[in-house]
Amino acid sequence: MAATLKIVVGSHIWLEDKDLVWIDGEVFRTEGQNVHVHTTNGKTVTVSISDIHPKDTEVPSDGIDDMTRLSYLHEPGVLNNLAVRYAKNIIYTYTGNILIAINPFQSLPHLSEPRTMEKYKGANFGELDPHVFAIADVSYRQMMNEGKSNSILVSGESGAGKTETTKMLMRYLAFLGGRSKTGGRTVEQQVLEVS
Ligand SMILES: Nc1ncnc2c1ncn2[C@@H]1O[C@H](COP(=O)(O)OP(=O)(O)OP(=O)(O)O)[C@@H](O)[C@H]1O
């Protein structure tokens, strides 16, 4: 994709960096298939045009909450968007109807308090900030509307936060299920016993 790019002096781009993985910079000279770049960490490098990616210079300070709306859907653009959000403790980002959750490695109570659950209950998907409760809510409503079982797939590498995320999903489903009883136990008790 980089080959079809119009790179000119002044273009903002991403290039690979052995320490930072990706670094952004500005092109100050083009020379055939090579470009000369000033990187934001103060280096001057020469790189092949096929190894660079365009940078969106208009990303809002909180990043973009759905990555399908990124101007450039490439690895540095995706990683930068997640990093910008993570730096502000925004751990959830959509890619369409998939939720990406990044382990905050710290307690973020506002994400799981009862008020937050209330807020997501019945809200249209995409109307509120990305959240695991929104995924649970839409899955639950679909299940109820269609009268069929539904599944939520939680995947990630070891330590990514699958267990914590699943606990939040369960708590939210228990909250939606309310206190109606089957077999002497409330729906809430039964759902929480699953985890
Ligand atoms: N949403 C979160 N908020 C706060 N801390 C979290 C969150 N998600 C994960 N953590 C922290 O990261 C640790 C690892 O997360 P977790 O056990 O959920 O990972 P996992 O993907 O289930 O790992 P494994 O596959 O190895 O079982 C937790 O014990 C917790 O300290």
Automatic annotation (TrEMBL):
UniProtKB keywords: Actin-binding, ATP-binding, Calmodulin-binding, Motor protein, Myosin, Nucleotide-binding
Family the UniProt entry places it in: Belongs to the TRAFAC class myosin-kinesin ATPase superfamily. Myosin family.
InterPro entries: Kinesin_motor_dom_sf, Myosin_head_motor_dom-like, P-loop_NTPase, SH3_Myosin
Cited Pfam families: Myosin_head, Myosin_N
GO-annotated cellular components: myosin complex
SUPFAM superfamilies: P-loop containing nucleoside triphosphate hydrolases
Start and end residues of each Myosin N-terminal SH3-like domain: 8-57
Domain (Myosin motor): residue spans on this chain: 62-195
Record-linked PANTHER family: MYOSIN, MYOSIN FAMILY PROTEIN WITH DIL DOMAIN
GO molecular function annotations of the record: actin binding; ATP binding; calmodulin binding; cytoskeletal motor activity
Residues holding ATP: G156, E157, S158, G159, A160, G161, K162, T163
Protein name per the record: Uncharacterized protein
